[in-house]
Amino acid sequence: MIISINKLALIRKKHKNQKIVYCDGVFDLTHAGHVLFFEDCKKYGDILVVMVGNDFNLRLYKGGERPILNEHVRLKMVDSIKTVDYALLDINAPHKDFLALKSDIIFKTLKPDFYIINNDAYDMPRRHKLVKGFDTKLVILERACPPEFEEISTTRIINKIKSLVNKEKGAERENPTAPQAH
Questions:
Q1: What's the count of helices (H) and strands (E) in the chain, helices before strands?
Q2: Within 10 A of 151 (CB to CB), how many other CB atoms are there?
Q3: What is the tens place of the pLDDT at every residue in 32-80?
Q4: Mapping DSSP to helix (H, G, I), strand (E, B) and coil, where does residue 139 land?
Q5: What is the full DSSP assignment across 147-160?
Q6: Contact, 143 vs 119, CB < 8 A?
Q7: How far apart are CA 29 and CA 124, in angstroms?
Q8: Residue 141 backbone dihedrals phi, psi, to 5 degrees
């Protein structure tokens, strides 16, 4: 269920006797690796709340070419995954310390039992500090997926598409009379 950030206290109230797991991320070009991450997160509790990063902060973090999909599409995709109970959009404005702002909103209001991140999350020391003073346990997961998933990631998908486009452009230059693919 997609919720607004001002509904976090209601989630805690509604699920007061259940373990709430919180995670956040970009989730651009949602893929099976994201599904595996959410499944791993859900193993820690009863309710999974996922915050999807907004477009502006994502551009600051990943660069001007990202996101591929806008925040509304990414939020809808995350919400559609069956292990996700609640999905919300990060509405934090750009801020030099937006992780601290997040702690004020998430950890004080939602009061999750677990905050789950991957071992390659940026600014790990700050994430450790975020949970201090709260009854939230930080869990750091190793990225893992079955071999048949070919270590799937959004960056690998983007790079594969770029490679295919570059090959197609190279073929067009070598054979300019060949029919153009659209």
A1: 7, 5
A2: 11
A3: 889 999 999 999 999 999 999 889 888 887 788 889 999 999 999 999 9
A4: strand
A5: GGGTT--HHHHHHH
A6: yes
A7: 24
A8: -100, 145
